[in-house]
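Provenance

Sequences were taken from public entries as deposited. Structures were produced by running a predictor on each sequence independently, with no templates supplied. The record for Cobalt-precorrin-6A reductase from Roseofilum acuticapitatum BLCC-M154 is shown for reference.
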Amino acid sequence: MSKVWLIGGTSESRQLAQGLVEAGLECVVTVTTESARSLYPNCPQLTVKVGKLQASSLDEFQRSHHIGVILDASHPWAQQISQQAIAFSEGSNIPYMRYERPPVTPSECDRNLTLDSFATLLTGDYLSNRRVFLTVGSQRLPLFQPWQHQATLFARVLPSIKSLQIAQEAGFSSDRLIAIRPPVPEALELALWQHWQISLVVTKASGNAGGEAMKRQLCDRLGIPLITITRPKMTYPQETHDIQEAINFCCS
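Predicted structure for Cobalt-precorrin-6A reductase:
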């Protein structure tokens, strides 16, 4: 019996995994971190594999797990795995569907900005003399290292040794870091921003599941600007924002 390869790691991928199992399908979920394993139900129809897959190993992965369809529910900013999965789908003639979490409708607040890239943010004069809270992922914190002496930078990262090491090497001292796994309760987010006297928030366009809407609401409430970096542009063979449509695709 062929199985679904579910590229996971997001809250939506947990819903998709549950839906696939309820539909009677066997599913292999791939995630990059051990902590993400706990997102998924423990049942015979579901296998969770931890670790980064290389393009060179996908043929063997497909054969050993009898993959018959690919459902890509990776994070909107995880371009590399999506590109690998699309290329593998086309080369092996295996159906591919992208589940893309719906975007958040931008606020009409004049203080909020949407920028097309981190390069635009960092080559402009948006951060100078600000107390900036960064929720952009640890991998992008090194980009902000040149700004450590021009702004007061704070960051939230995942609670892992690797994330903390990247942040510290990028110049973030321990008193300007918080390590916590999302979702973050609104009351805690608000208290943290107030404690650090944040005057600007920078985030990625990661949808409601990534807390984007809540950040917009809190910035409006506190009267501080929010800068949102738009998602990387990707062209998918097939794409949906609807979880049930994605499950139906795998059943067809």
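Residues 66 and 122 are 45 Å apart (CA to CA).
The longest helix spans residues 79-92.
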